Amino acid sequence: MKPTASTGSGPGAGERHDLLVLVADQRTNFLYAVAGLTDEQARTCSTVSELTLGGIVKHLADVQRSWLSVIDGTAAPEVGWADLDPDGNRMTDDETLAAHVDAFHAAAEAFDRAVREEADLDREVTLPRYPWSPPQPVVWTVRHVLLHVFREIAHHSGHADIVREALDGASTTEQMAKAAMGGE
User: Fold this and answer.
1) pTM listed for this prediction
2) Dihedral, 111, 112, 113, 119 alpha carbons, nearest 10
C-alpha cells in the first residue's frame, strides 16, 4: 500500500496531461495518510467526527467512480437519500483497507483513462440531481469534473492528515519527505 510518486510534467505536455499529473500527485499525497495502517486503525475514529481513514479511502474511490459515470453518461439522472449508502463514508467490520485502496486505484485508473480518451474537455455533461442540488439542471464541462475530482481528493486529504495525526501522530509531510529520500 505504499504510495507511488508522480513523474511530473514537461514542457509541451499539454493541459490534459498536466491536470492528470496534478490529480495523480494529489492521490499520492492522500495515500501517505493511510500508508502502514492496520484495518483496526483504518476503522478508528480518532477525532470528534465520525471520519475514519478507511472510510475516506472508500469515499474517494466512490467519488471517482461516480464522476466517471457522469463523464461516460451512465450516471443515474437522479439520486435520492434512499439511494445513498449509509456506510459510504466509513469502513465496516467486514471490509479491509487493502480492498479499499485497491478499489481507489482501480477507480483512479478508470477515471484517468476516460479523461485521456475524452475527445473534448469542453464537452458538457449534466450532473445527476441530488437532494442538495439546485432545482435547475447543473451542467459542467469534463474539465470541470476533472478539477472537481482534484478538489475532492485535496479536501479529503486534509481530513485524512488530521485523522492520521490524531490516530498515531504520523505526519503525511514527514512520510513524503522520508519516501523522497529513499526511506520507507
Assistant:
1) 0.90
2) 100
